[in-house]
């Protein structure tokens, strides 16, 4: 006997779907989520499934998990206090963004405040050309001064977002190594490592989001893995990605920005599957949770 389990942990409820591969039976279960004690809802759910359905965790051959812990951290703004090191004179990258306002016909509309406020953004004298040639290499004294300023501001981590780092990451790598010497207790998130794409704002904000949620997501995944192993699950533990795919729990800890919309993606894919199977080509899905509500347009089964 072998089971496949999918678990969706939301802000209010945690939902289990258990598929018995021997007879095709599908069982579901809903328990309260425990933001105060992550992992407790998994224990509660498995205990209930043992008592109700006779589930033996040791017979589980596939386990995948979707969670909203990443996106909820951004929405509730309770992530890591970060500093941003940018190329000098590009310190306003998060404020300027793409110069677009949320409501194009409303001159009074404003963008949300950046996850890193302007007083925690520090310029580094460095420059890489669009060709990838390093024009100015960072100096140790300059980086040390920025690290000291970040510490005084109470920052618990540093994001690096240098101009053209997608083309040549050498300056970001050099500064990351220097920070490791000056402040080994501060985690560093490099934009060239997180998402090496051409657009400066998109690359920077992706690295910022990754660093902002990483500590909370990592702690959550640590607790999650510990609980499941204590419950005798021996199969690989998979996490749903924002694109609907899955990745291992170790990769999720390191590359947590890939799972920001983990739980959201799971709901959209499920709605798309049901819509296609039911013959509906154009639908809207609405997923209302305890923290956020997510809407998707699904055409031909594709979101």
What does this structure look like?
With 303 residues, this protein is of the alpha/beta class. It is built from 9 helices and 14 strands. A hairpin with a 3-residue loop joins β1 (3-9) and β2 (13-20). α2 (69-76) crosses α7 (200-230). It is globular. The mean pLDDT is 92.
- The helix tally amounts to 9
| Beta-strand content estimate | 15-25%
Strands across the major sheet, in which order?
A: 3-2-1-4-11-12
Oligomer: single chain
What is the total tally of β strands? 14
N-to-C order of helices and strands: EEEHEHEHEEEHEHEHHEEHHEE
Shape: globular
Helical proportion? 25-40%
What are the low-pLDDT stretches, counting only 5+ consecutive residues below 50? Answer: none
The CATH class name of the largest domain reads Alpha Beta
Structurally, how many domains make up the residues?
Answer: 3
Our measurement of the CA-to-CA distance between the termini, rounded to an integer number of angstroms, reads: 35 Å
């Amino acid at each position: 006997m072998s089971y496949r389990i999918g678990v969706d942990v939301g802000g209010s409820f945690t939902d289990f779907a258990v598929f018995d591969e021997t007879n095709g039976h599908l069982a579901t279960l809903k328990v309260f989520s425990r933001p105060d004690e992550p992992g407790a809802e998994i224990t509660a759910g498995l205990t209930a499934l043992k008592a109700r359905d006779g589930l033996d965790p040791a017979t589980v051959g596939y386990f995948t998990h979707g969670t909203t812990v990443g996106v909820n951290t951004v929405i509730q703004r309770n992530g890591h206090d970060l500093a941003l090191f940018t190329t000098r004179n590009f310190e306003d990258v998060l404020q300027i963004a793409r110069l677009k306002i949320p409501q194009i016909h409303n001159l009074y509309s404003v963008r949300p405040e950046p996850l890193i406020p302007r007083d925690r953004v520090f310029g580094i004298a460095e420059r890489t050309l669009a060709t990838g040639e390093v024009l100015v290499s960072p100096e140790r004294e300059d980086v040390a001064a920025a690290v000291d300023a970040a510490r005084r501001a109470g920052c618990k981590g540093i994001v690096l977002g240098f101009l053209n780092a997608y083309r040549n990451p050498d300056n970001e790598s050099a500064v990351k190594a220097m920070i490791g010497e000056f402040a080994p207790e501060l985690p560093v998130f490099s934009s060239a490592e997180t998402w090496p794409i051409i657009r400066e704002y998109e690359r920077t904000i992706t690295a910022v989001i990754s660093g902002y949620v990483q500590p909370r997501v990592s702690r959550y995944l640590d607790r999650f893995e510990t609980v499941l192993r204590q419950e005798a699950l021996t199969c690989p533990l998979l996490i749903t990605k924002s694109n609907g795919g899955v990745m291992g729990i170790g990769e999720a800890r390191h590359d947590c920005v890939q799972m920001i919309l983990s739980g959201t993606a799971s709901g959209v894919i499920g709605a798309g599957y049901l819509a296609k199977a039911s013959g509906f080509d154009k639908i809207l899905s609405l997923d209302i949770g305890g923290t956020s509500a997510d809407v998707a347009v699904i055409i031909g089964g594709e979101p």
